[in-house]
């Protein structure tokens, strides 16, 4: 989430949607590091006018499966099963050496993908516990506050936002952003490097499960054409052009990269729920209808 990636936050002209967006291909629920229950998110998106929604929790399809099993999809809304994989690169010049890969339209019953996700979740849990220990070592214990946070189930993809929320509850910081900048980002005392999939493995796992692999919130794309080409050769099929907090200039620059590299543009809110309602986030989302047409064609819907 908003771990202050460069050009991630609108600095130039904000995007002003001409009409309410009917597409949101990047959202999180309480099954990873979002705050809404999967059913609540789907209902809020439908109310806001979304017709094509992807739930893209980190490392888990639990939210998608719950919504499908409960037949909790409002009429007129299509749910695209999705995933977001944080991939570790060997490029220290990237923020925290990571890129995030969205998998859109994956088969939620694919066993190979589930095995990959289970391994990612195990690594995530180990890292989470190491971070909590580090914070305790520097006099910022959060165990009791963590216990008081809503439980999100066995499939919970534990992440830094959850640690950050516990730090707010303890009064150490006043916002998730402050927790990241003072404690949880690379170089800060609570930071633990991630171990896990590389981007090529992430792309392959998504492709093998029938999904479109799209590089998420990569505002640096225009300066990273080498990486874009490398990932495209590995099977990357999309680029998240219409990211909610990109400014208009960044959207245009990333759109040009997608066109040149022949990557399907994707777009979404990356809604987590920390600072606004879904309706408020949706008001700043501008994903063209053509994105839905293109993504549907790629994933065979
Ligand atoms: Zn991300
Ligand atoms: Zn995300």
Q: Your description of this structure?
A:
The chain has 301 residues and is an alpha/beta fold. The chain has one domain (23-299): Alpha-Beta Barrel (TIM Barrel), CATH 3.20.20. The chain has helices spanning 38-48, 62-69, 111-137, 143-148, 160-169, 176-184, 199-208, 225-234, 248-261, 278-283, 289-299, and strands spanning 23-24, 52-55, 78-88, 98-104, 212-215, 238-243, 264-268. The protein has a 7-stranded mixed β-sheet with strand order 1-2-3-4-5-6-7. Helix 2 (62-69) links the parallel strand 2 and strand 3. Helix 5 (160-169) crosses helix 6. The protein is globular. The chain starts with 22 loop residues before the first strand and ends with a helix. Residues 26, 28, 84, 270 line the site of one zinc ion.
Distinct ligands, ions and cofactors found in the model = zinc ion
Largest sheet: 7 strands, mixed
Number of domains: 1
The whole-number mean of residue pLDDT values reads 92
Number of DSSP helices?
11
Question: Do you know the CATH architecture?
Answer: Alpha-Beta Barrel
- Portion of residues within helices: 40-55%
Instruction: Specify the CATH class.
Output: Alpha Beta
Strand segment tally: 7
Q: Name the beta content range.
A: 5-15%
Distance between the termini: 29 Å
**What is the CATH homologous superfamily assignment?**
Metal-dependent hydrolases
Tell me the series of helices and strands, N- to C-terminal: EHEHEEHHHHHEHEHEHH
Strand order of the largest sheet: 1-2-3-4-5-6-7
Low-confidence stretches: 1-7
CATH T-level topology: TIM Barrel
The geometry reads as globular
Rg over CA atoms, rounded to whole Å, is 18 Å
Given helix and strand content, the structural type is: alpha/beta
